[in-house]
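Throughout our pipeline, every protein is held as a single compact record rather than as scattered files. Such a record has a labelled line for the sequence and another for the backbone structure tokens. The remainder of this section carries one protein's record, kept here as part of the documentation:
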Amino acid sequence: MNRAVLILIIALMGCALMLVTSQQKTRMLFAEKNRLELQERRLNLEYLRLEYEQRDLSKSSRIIDLAQKQLHMSEPKQDKRKYFKVQE
């Protein structure tokens, strides 16, 4: 009888330790999940900001303005243009 009680106490202690370990793992995984969700939100905001910036920088009016002001480029005159036909 004493031996059976001792075995049940040891089994109960083992189960209690496994329960505490699994709860700790659950808490750690939940904290990690929350951290990753926060990082995902930050990255989504950064992505949206970069998309907006890319659209703004790629507008043709901005490109033409920069070409004229910084590179001193201008549209070629009509008599300076050459057209080529592509042979198929």
